[in-house]
Amino acid sequence: MIRLFALLSLGWLAAAQPDSEIHILRVRGNIYMLVGGGANITVSAGRDGILMVDTGGAGMTAKVLAAVRRLQGDTATNGVDVLTYGAEGRSAMRAIVDTKEPAKPIRYIMNTSVDADHIAGNEQIAKTGKTFTGGNVAGNISDAAEGAAVMAHETVLNRMTEAKLPFGALPTDTYHIDAMKLSHYFNGEGVEMLHMPAAHSDGDSLVWFRGSDVISTGDVFTPDRYPVIDLARGGSIQGIIDALNRILDMTIPEFRLEGGTVVIPGHGHLCDAADVAYYRDMATIIRDRIQALIKKDMTLEQVKAAKPTLDYDGIYGATTGPWTTDMFIEAVYRSLNQRKK
User: Fold this and answer.
1) How many beta carbons lie within 10 A of that of residue 69, not counting itself?
2) Which residues 6+ apart lie within 8 Å of 311 measured at CB?
């Protein structure tokens, strides 16, 4: 299992405190993970520009932008050595040209949920970018002036609008079906957003970098804590399990579930299929235990007293902070009771 980073902060709520510094981890090829901004941020940095998955928590935007600028200027190819996959499209062909080019701007921001620690930087970061116009991605002459495009499931837009967030923070492009693909290769590969309904919330998206074989999961997978189930925003334990199974369907391990597809969680360390499988098994086992106690007509307090998570508490549990073990048990209990009705 990949255990290179462990986030100390529980950052899914606005009240949670992010780290004071941003750490950059090169994941694979032109894909990077920014750690310390409140939630993990995934970055594709290459000749076409920057694509970001989430923008971090409040108060961290300047440091997130500084980390992105480092990636923009690190190499002659703006963050990518050689693109060795994909068709002979524009990006792949230009990767072999050994020239020093100006750093390309932030083109896209993809939001995995409406959580404050994933979207707080949207407005300021989008302003610094330039998206493409008219499907023409041939160069800076086609840059639009309105900033980077912000993409999310339409439920995220609806909830951000209801919360009266600033117009500049809102998604500019949404989708309402199962998935949305970028209309063109970006930095030499296809990128796809996949909706995970009723999981952590009702607006969760996975982002799949298909050439790099990297999946950015948002908060449907958080291996440093129990699954965060936002009941008020349509989350459910069954939706979490379904999303984890979907991730496993997409991963290809190198050997015996180890290595292969890299999974970047919403919080916590870099993972592979084994990490996701262990986490899925935990969520399934606890769901079944609590379901069995509900069938015995136990109250919530009786279920908590039965300690259905005891053997996992040393790994995922917490007694303080924004997401405690008691809160998880209650969310599972209420989620299953809603399902029963």
Assistant:
1) 14
2) none
Q: Which residues of 258-290 are buried (b: 16+ CB within 10 A; e: fewer)?
A: eeebbbbbbbbbbbbbbbbbebbebbbebbebb
Instruction: Please say whether the beta carbons of 199 and 239 come within 8 A.
Output: yes
At the top level of CATH, the class of 23-273 is alpha beta
256: phi then psi, degrees, rounded to nearest 5: 50, 50
pTM confidence score: 0.86
What pLDDT sits at residue 74?
67
- Stretches in the chain below the pLDDT threshold 70: 1-20, 74-101, 133-145, 339-341
Indicate the domain borders of the chain: 23-273
Question: Two tokens at 89?
Answer: 């499209």
- Tokens 């703006």 locate to 78
Beta-sheet pairing, 262-264 with 214-216: parallel
| pLDDT value, residue 313 | 98
| Alpha-carbon gap, residue 107 to 317, rounded angstroms | 38
pLDDT at 339 (0 to 100) = 65
Amino acid identity of 40?
N
d(CA 134, CA 334): 47
13, 57 in Cβ contact below 8 A? no
